Description:
This protein has 120 residues and is an alpha/beta fold. It contains 5 helices and 6 strands.
Amino acid sequence: xxxxxxxxxxxxxHLAKLLIKKGFEVKMSNSRGPESLETLATDLGxxxxxxxxxxxxxxxxxxxxxxxxxxxLKTVTFNDNILVDATNQMKxxxxxxxxxxxxxxxxxxxxxxxxxTLYA
Length: 120
């Protein structure tokens, strides 16, 4: 099974490492493009890709910084797949809590919240 990870920071890398160890094929994207992921491809075994391709995976993990969430969700189309929200985007001043923001803007995805209480 192919799992996609949007975000190549600590959380994304750690999840990729664990998933690959369990035998999953992992596609990964980041804001800098597939070329910037070549070292991770060599070190971890991920498949560098662009975000739109990663979003086509059966399961997609969103592991990006809060400030990048809306930019990504506005440009990516999900196809009735599972989107695991591993972000921490609580913002008290405008009451955007948890995955409500992601679920509202990730059209055609089944949003699940996970990993946000764990350290990378």
